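Run log // design_07
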């Protein structure tokens, strides 16, 4: 049984290899898809959209990439309650905490009696560079860990066979986009934003 849940990039790599998808979000994705062995593809294909775990001090938590029913839907800290109701529709009543991602923008908010957490991201974090993550139990705490970004970029470039590895890593680790820029882009997505 797989230990995680699937995100849009996992699905896109699988679609590229198994379904002939040709439109990919960036130059590294087709290259990455071609690096996957059949057992990797099988693993990606077996990942569920959601995963539930019991977390001490928090209770039953649902983890998903974007929203429980869609790995690309955009929900933000300031999304309307109507949008949140639609996004969380079908989630069991005993689930009081939902951890989502996709936008790489860390936040914690209450929506229809549920605590919604976006821990942020290590790659392409918006606002400040660093590894953004959340600690669950006994409550929820957003964290950011600083690391040597230039050393990480150099190591990725040195160890990757992808020709554009240094540029790719630089873009995704240096956090060039601000939170305001991300909100301007993401703010136009979603049915009830």
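design_07 sequence
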């Amino acid at each position: 049984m797989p230990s995680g849940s699937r995100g849009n990039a996992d699905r896109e790599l699988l679609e590229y290899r198994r379904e002939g998808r040709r439109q990919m979000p960036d130059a590294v994705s087709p290259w990455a898809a071609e690096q996957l062995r059949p057992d990797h593809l099988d693993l990606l294909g077996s990942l569920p959209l959601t995963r539930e775990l019991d977390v001490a001090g928090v209770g039953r938590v649902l983890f998903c990439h974007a929203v429980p029913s869609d790995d690309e839907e955009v929900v933000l800290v300031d999304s309307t309650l109507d949008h949140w109701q639609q996004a969380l529709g079908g989630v069991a009543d005993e689930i009081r905490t939902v951890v989502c991602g996709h936008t790489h923008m860390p936040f914690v908010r209450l929506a229809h009696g549920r605590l919604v957490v976006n821990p942020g991201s290590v790659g392409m974090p918006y606002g400040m560079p660093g590894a953004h993550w959340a600690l669950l139990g006994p409550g929820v705490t957003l964290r950011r860990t600083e690391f040597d970004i230039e050393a990480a970029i150099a190591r990725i470039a040195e160890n990757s066979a992808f020709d554009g590895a240094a540029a790719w890593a630089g873009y995704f680790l240096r956090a060039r986009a601000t939170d305001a820029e991300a909100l301007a882009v993401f703010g136009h997505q979603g049915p009830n934003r």
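Residues 8-18 form the longest helix (11 residues).
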